[in-house]
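Inverse folding, one chain.
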């Protein structure tokens, strides 16, 4: 069984790499240890979490915002089981779509654990106990990541859980304690807060979303507090204990005092780590970093020349769209093309409501790099479209080079900014100036006008509607 390319892992990076390689004429095999394709993103990550976020958002609107629109309904209720079933059907449809794409592109899929025999052979350990060895000219490692924990936390996956279990709880928690104020914790915390849970976020850093622009962290904290989420920043967790149906989280606050949080569920959302268990990297001498990631060069090539690695298993942001782009890049390199990827222009998004989105440099990064920059900011509250929909929280901030006016970073909090951020990404890909963006006619009334106004504020300091 010889192939031009074997991809180990069928997540967004792996299956997209396989499709692109097949489009360019390669004979491709994909090895996936689970019974469904799509990896973490499709099965226990991006897709199911957005399904629950949308369902809970509808319920929250019905209970909190319908009346102001003149819509009167009896006290809304929800069937959590139906929400979870809907999520499961969406996942099933999506994984089925990936299977269709494999068939369409003549990609052979092998179910089992893939491990290196040598640089050109991969053993597939199947669930029935049998083994099959595949041969390929080139191999891509796309095995993704798993949720991380803290060394003293024992995950029982019932009450002390990761994001995987949080997506299939049998009930809405009474009090959900979230350890970690990053993307995963805030999104899943939002789901359950909207459905009536008390939610307490415990974060070690001084702010939530500590890697994002400080204005974004400040605004998101404000609006989520308004929704009832409780934040405990500057808190270092020391212990997590379960007593029956109660979970106790012990932490040390900024003053050095020990405090306790008691709830019925604790979500550990402290990040993710590269997953290479069982791959047999030692069989081919592939180097890894201190963090367990596969070492690659600028072409995503490992120290073994015909083996590449992409996505969460290598350095960089652990984002599905980053993995997809890397998959395309490797497939095109193998076909003799010269693709590129600009890691500075990979957008980061948080699907709370309002949403958060960013691309490029933060203000702090520009200060640290001693870049002479200027900033323009525009409030969503000043937009007619935002007032019409009632989504007035948030802003758009544009950072531009003070001398050349080139856009260096854009940061947004607001309705539909997850989609809106791509306007900024496209502009920055073509090295547009703030003036360029400000002079483009934007439809009225739209949320996108905030981008135009913020760009004008950065360019000449004179937005038109504030």
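Residues assigned per position:
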């Amino acid at each position: 069984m010889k192939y031009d390319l074997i991809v180990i892992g069928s997540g967004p990076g792996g299956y997209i790499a396989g499709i692109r390689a097949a489009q360019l004429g390669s004979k491709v095999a994909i090895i996936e240890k689970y019974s469904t394709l799509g990896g973490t993103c499709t099965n226990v990550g991006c897709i199911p979490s957005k399904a629950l976020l949308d369902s809970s958002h509808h319920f929250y609107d019905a209970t909190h915002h319908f009346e102001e629109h003149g819509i009167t309904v009896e006290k809304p209720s929800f069937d959590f089981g139906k929400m979870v079933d809907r999520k499961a059907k969406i996942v099933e449809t999506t994984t089925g779509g990936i299977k269709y794409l494999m068939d369409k592109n003549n990609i052979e899929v092998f179910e089992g654990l893939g491990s290196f025999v040598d640089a050109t052979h991969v053993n597939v350990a199947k669930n029935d106990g049998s083994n099959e060895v595949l041969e390929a000219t080139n191999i891509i490692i796309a095995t993704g990541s798993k949720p991380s924990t803290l060394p003293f936390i024992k995950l029982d996956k019932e009450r002390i859980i990761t994001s995987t279990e949080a997506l299939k709880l049998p009930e809405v928690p009474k009090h959900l304690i979230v350890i970690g104020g990053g993307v995963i914790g805030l999104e899943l915390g939002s789901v359950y807060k909207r459905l009536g849970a008390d939610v307490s976020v415990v974060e070690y850093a001084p702010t939530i979303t500590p890697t994002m622009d400080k204005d974004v962290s400040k605004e998101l904290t404000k609006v989520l507090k308004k929704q009832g989420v409780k934040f405990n920043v500057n808190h270092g967790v020391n212990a997590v204990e379960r007593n029956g149906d109660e979970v106790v989280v012990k932490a040390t606050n900024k003053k050095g005092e020990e405090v306790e949080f008691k709830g019925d569920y604790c979500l550990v959302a402290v990040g993710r780590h590269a997953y290479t268990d069982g791959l047999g990297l030692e069989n081919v001498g592939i180097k890894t970093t201190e963090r367990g990631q596969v070492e690659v060069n600028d072409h995503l090539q490992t120290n073994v020349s015909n083996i590449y690695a992409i996505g969460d298993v290598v350095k960089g942001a652990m984002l599905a769209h980053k993995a997809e782009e890397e998959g395309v890049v490797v497939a095109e390199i193998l076909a003799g093309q010269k693709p590129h990827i600009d890691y500075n222009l990979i957008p980061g998004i948080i699907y709370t409501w309002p949403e958060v989105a960013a691309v490029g440099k933060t203000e702090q990064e520009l200060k640290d790099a001693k870049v002479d920059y200027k900033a323009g900011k525009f409030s969503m509250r000043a937009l007619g479209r935002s007032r019409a929909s009632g989504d007035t929280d948030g802003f758009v901030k544009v950072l531009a080079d003070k001398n050349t006016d080139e856009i260096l970073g854009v940061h947004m909090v607001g309705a539909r900014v997850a989609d809106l951020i791509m306007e900024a990404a496209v502009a920055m890909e073509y090295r547009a100036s703030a003036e360029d963006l400000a002079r483009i006619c934007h439809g009225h009334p739209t949320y996108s006008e905030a981008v135009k106004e913020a760009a004008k504020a950065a360019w000449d300091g004179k937005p038109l509607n504030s």
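The domain at 160-270 is CATH 3.50.50.60 (FAD/NAD(P)-binding domain). The two ends are 66 Å apart (CA to CA).
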